[in-house]
Every structure is written in structure tokens, then in C-alpha cells.
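User: Predict structure, ligand fe (ii) ion.
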Amino acid sequence: MNVSYQIDDEVITLELDGEVVSGANEVLLAQDTNLMAKTDWQDKGYTVVPFLKQEDFDKVKAGITKMIAGIIEACGGKVDEAFTLARYHLYVDDTVHLAVAKAIKDGWLVTEFPIDFQIVNDRMSGLLHEQVCTELKGSQYDSFFLRIVRPKKYADNNPPHRDVWLDRLRHAVNIYAPLSGSNKGSALPILPGSHLLMESQIERTAAGARLNGTQYTVPCVTSVLGAIPHMTRPDLTENEMMIFTPYMVHGGGYNLNENETRTSLEVRFWKV
Ligand SMILES: [Fe+2]
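Assistant: Predicted complex:
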């Protein structure tokens, strides 16, 4: 069976090997902490805003570039003076990329962020009118993550999903903050308003299912209201961030750029 996603004007089709299921007549967000409750974008489920002071952003980008260059070398690749995050794909083959992806999968503690992470916590708390931080009490989550999606490599990202199908990711709000290569052809697609749908209105892959041969940790959306999920990509650029609810369907961030790697910070915040 095939599963298709419409992302703005593109249709992407993947092969599904496995079962699909849908849930109960319940809206998960209605039962959980809604960190958007004091914002005027809670019905849309996302907003795009400026991220950091330019000098802070420059430090973040330079620091992460250095971290990734070190990881490429540790994974058997080579970098040179011309290395940038946007040019990442020119420095790795599939083997090195898979090793890098594995090395960064669990993210980094926020203490390793290139600037004091409290700056980001304060920015988020101000925008949400709610004190938030990256620490989820009772878990080891106090981390930031980097997503690296090479141009035209269709296995570098997750298909559309809702994070909150993993219990530990409930009650949070997420950010997507690009460091390179993010535009209308590569940004993280979202399905605005889908966080308000009932579980019974969204069909997803059952445990053990594979999409194009890959088994993902989070179930993948296969249809919404009985039809092809119709996603859109926000148009944001470096030093902007999208704040979005992990209850909303998002993912499928295939990079259709010709020659630019999309890298983006992904961070989750919980109520302090
Ligand atoms: Fe996600």
C-alpha cells in the first residue's frame, strides 16, 4: 500500500508495509498542559518569530558548525576551511552521514550550547507568557538537538507524525530554528490546526510498520480526516524560529534544494 503526503504543491508517496490504526474520540491536547494557552496563535498551532540577537545567533551558528565539523572527522570524514553547515553534504558520503546522524541522535545537554541557554529559555518564556525550560522533571531530557537533511536524500527525515504519540514528549512546546538551507523547498512541513483533531480523525502506522523500508520510533500519519495529509512549509530563514505544538502533525521535511543542506535546531520546552 502507498501513503501520500501533499506538501504545498508537491506530492510525496512512500510505500507502507504494515498496518494502520486510529485512536479514540479524544483530543490529546485537551487533557494535557497547553503551553500556547496564553498566545494568540493557539488555534493555528504555530508561529514564526525572530530567534536571537544577531551576535548571539552568529555565536550559535559558529559553535554548532565547529561541533559538526569535529563529529564528521570523528566519523571518518574530512573537513576543510570552506566547510559550512549548508555545504555539509559535500563533505560526507552516505556512510559518514549515517555515522554523524547516529552520533547526534540523542542531542547535547544545553550546557554545551554555544551561548548561555538561559537566553533561549527567557525568550521562550516571554513569548509564551509562561516560565518554560528544556528540563523535563524525572527524565534525562535537558537537551537540544540538531536535524541535518541533505538535499534530495529522502531518508534523512521522519515522515509526518505527532511527537505526543510518545508519552514522554507530551505537555511540551517545540521550536524549529534553522541554521542553514531552510526555505519553502526544505523547511519542516506542518499541518496547521491538526493539534485540535481527535485521535479518531487521524490514521497512523501501527507498531512494526515500515515506510520505504524504515521503521520509525514515532508512528507515521497515513491519513487525516480520511484524506491525504495536506501540509505546508513555513517560509522562515536563519535567525527566525517556528514555535509549534508537538500535538500538531508535522514532519516530512524532505529537502528539495539542489545544493544546500538544511540544518535546524530542535528543542522542546516544558513548564518550569
Ligand atoms: Fe517531531
